[in-house]
Amino acid sequence: MAVHRLLKWTAALLAAGALLLWPEATFDGHRTFAESRAAKDNLHLLAQVVCGEARGEPYEGKVAVAAVILNRTLDNRFPDSVAGVVYQTHAFESVSNGEIYKETTEECFKAARAALAGWDPSNGALYFFAPAKTSNAFIWSREQVRTIGKHIFAK
């Protein structure tokens, strides 16, 4: 993963004044910085949304959902923080219906960490949807870039 992309994601995840600790050893594929309080809070929120939106989906689909949230933090049309993206009005059904407050599994945390480490199986998508559950014209008008499980990922 390009360092500039990691730095942009890291900046989006840390609260003002938070301490960023860079690892001394080579990264293990799942962690790119020590999990400060702000980073842990954002990791937990990201994992909650992954579980709420992709429960029952394959692992790759879970990582892709997390990647969409991170991709949005890098796009000037969206808020520049994980919380800002997650809590944007009507952005995620799991926030509206409370699914994000159900149990968060270790697999969802693992998927969130994988996305934070740079894996983006969504191919840069900014949106995802379950075609069986939506007739929204806007979402269907987006360029579809990948299908994983029951979700279509789009730009």
TrEMBL record:
The molecular function terms of the Gene Ontology recorded here are: hydrolase activity
Q: Which InterPro entries match?
A: Cell_wall_hydrolase_SleB (IPR011105), SleB_dom1 (IPR042047)
List, alphabetically, the Pfam families matched. Hydrolase_2
- Leader sequence range is 1-27
Looking at the record, the residues that make up the Cell wall hydrolase SleB domain are 56-154
Q: List the keywords (alphabetical).
A: Signal
Does the keyword field hold Signal? Answer: yes
Q: What is this protein called?
A: Spore cortex-lytic protein
Its lineage reads: Bacteria, Bacillati, Bacillota, Clostridia, Eubacteriales
